[in-house]
Design brief:
5 helices, alpha+beta, Alpha-Beta Plaits, single chain, 139 residues, five-stranded mixed sheet, 5 strands
Length: 139
């Protein structure tokens, strides 16, 4: 079993309706393939964790790479895991607005804007911390 943490940028600003549609698609597919994880959307950027069997996670990530709603995908972490961090979440989700981001422990202003892909590489520890703050219910 693996988890894959990646970031990407939306090709256009996503409305609440767009995000709910994307979330429904992700949850349906993840349930079919027994993949769990979570998705954050902030400042035009996606931050996602996928966890499950290698083949299933890779297949879903390949589909994400082909999805025209996002670009500039960068894998932050891809590694073997012994157990799932999000075992009961087909896809946890949070749309971070400028207001609720300021309530996050370890808040960083980099979440307020769409970033170029190379900027993500220098922020991997901030991104991973943010994702796990969400799991703890701090976001």
């Amino acid at each position: 079993m693996i988890h894959l943490i990646y970031v990407s940028s939306a090709t256009h600003e996503m409305s609440e309706e767009d995000l709910l549609f994307l979330l429904k698609q992700a949850r349906d597919r993840n349930k079919r393939q027994d993949v769990t994880g979570m998705l954050l959307y902030a400042g035009g950027n996606f931050f996602q964790v996928l966890e499950g069997e290698d083949k299933d996670v890779e297949e879903i990530y390949e589909a994400i790479l082909r999805d025209e709603r996002n670009t500039g995908n960068i894998v932050i972490v891809k590694e073997d895991i012994n157990e799932r961090t999000f075992p009961f979440w087909s896809m946890g989700f949070k749309h971070l607005t400028r207001q609720n981001k300021k309530l996050i422990n370890g808040y960083s202003e980099f979440l307020d804007r769409k970033m170029e892909p190379e900027e993500f590489a220098n922020k991997s520890n901030v991104i991973i911390n943010l994702l796990y703050q969400f799991k703890k219910g701090n976001v």
